[in-house]
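#struct-pred

JT: dropping the chains for the assembly here, can someone run the whole complex?
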Amino acid sequence: MPRILLIVGGGIAAYKSLDLIRRLRERGYGVRVVLTKAAEQFVTPLAAASLSGHKTHTELFSLTDEAEMGHIELSRAADLVVVAPATADLMAKAANGLANDLASTLLSATDKRALYAPAMNVRMWLNPATQRNVATLARDGALFVGPNEGEMACGEFGPGRMSEPLEIVAAIEAALKAPTALPFPLPCPARPRAPPGRCAAGASSSPPGRRMSRSTRCATSPTAPRASRATRSPPVSPRSARG
Ligand SMILES: Cc1cc2nc3c(=O)[nH]c(=O)nc-3n(C[C@H](O)[C@H](O)[C@H](O)COP(=O)(O)O)c2cc1C
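RK: done, full complex below.
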């Protein structure tokens, strides 16, 4: 069965990620869980470990983890990386290639697709910077599920509620089945593919965003710019959609 690397960000919706683990496990998925430092304020590593059946990972600099399953292996051993809840902060880091904690390092180091389930206050979601980051991630090949519209934990109303666990499961199933136009797993840039004597720059020098810039749209990408359910999301200007 497919293996999911679930990165839980520090939002109030983190409690739903525990149910997501349960739903995935009852369908036979292998689930490895990473909690950000902020996520640990909302759910405990013990709860995630009990439900996933595996140790919960929280530290980038962990001698034990690096000896048992290093961060590179953790980022590669999954078939799909799922970020739920995807905080504004995590998406900002991933969109800009920051890698200063375990979650962002895994997102940066993975050779697999990432599916984001954003969850945040409506103003955070509508913030142009967040929308720019979502557009950048979508352009680079990321998939999205949600956010849904409705009443928020803070009492406001609008888009920003994390999708329900079963909606995320459906998006995961679609992402795993969907034929991809993207070259995943990404070719390792260290392995030149040019014939002997020819410069391999074409294979290795173009930035990943360029190599992945073919169609990034998918049925499970409702927040991707120009995607079918984008009406529920704030409009992304054509300028920001092009990045
Ligand atoms: C009570 C509370 C609830 C929060 N909920 C969210 C949220 O739903 N979405 C979000 O993006 N940030 C939320 N934040 C802010 C994040 O916790 C903060 O940006 C944090 O740095 C995110 O870290 P992470 O991305 O590493 O998990 C919340 C903060 C608090 C104190």
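JT: nice. The chain has one domain: 3-181+216-241. Residues 40 and 223 are 27 Å apart (CA to CA).
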